[in-house]
Amino acid sequence: MKTQAWGWLAAGVLAAGLNAVYHDGGFDWAHGIADRAEHDSAAVLALASGQAERFFAEARLAGHDEAGLSGVDAALAQVQAKVADGEGCLARVEAMSARQEAQLAQVQAVRARIEARVAARKAQCRVASVMAPAAFVQVAVPQVCPRVRVNIPRIPRISVPAPVVHVETVGAGPV
User: Fold this and answer.
1) Range of the domain at 59
2) Which CA distances in Å does 1 have to 4, 5, 7, 13, 42?
């Protein structure tokens, strides 16, 4: 519990120090982000409330760059560039489609030639089967397999008594 308290204390001191540096003018990048967020939110609020003049004023304040283009003009230029890229892409797709159609036509022509060859072979096989003489037809005769019987005699069971072993010892010495 004591370690957790020290951790919270350190986080509080760090947050207070960062806040002081920010309010003293440090962290220019953070000030830029805050200003841009302020203008963007004001522009969105103006757009949502239907105040077009205020929206364009906030958009110009928020997006004014060195070239003199406002944020709206820059966005419009980006959209026009993307449309031009899309038209080029469409032309490439149409060219690719024409190539694929030509390849499909070639594949269909090859398939038609193969089907014609197969039909010609089938016709040749039918003619050959009609012309085959009936004298060469062989009829299979069933063969009879003879039955074999085998008798295995039973061997009689012989019972042998177990041997009895007697050991006689002389004296108490080792055996």
Assistant:
1) 8-63
2) 5, 6, 10, 19, 45
pLDDT value for 109:
92
Domain count for the chain: 2
Q: Is residue 173 part of a domain?
A: no
Residue type, 168: E
Q: How many Å apart are CA 17 and CA 3, to the nearest integer?
A: 21
Two tokens, residue 90: 């469409």
32 and 15 both lie in a single domain: yes
Buried b (16+ CB within 10 A) or exposed e, 50-68: eeeeebeebbbebbeeeee
Are 85 and 44 in the same domain? no
Q: Write the pLDDT tens digit of every residue in 57-107.
A: 776 765 544 444 456 677 777 777 777 777 777 777 788 788 888 888 899
Distance linking the first and last C-alpha atoms of the chain = 83
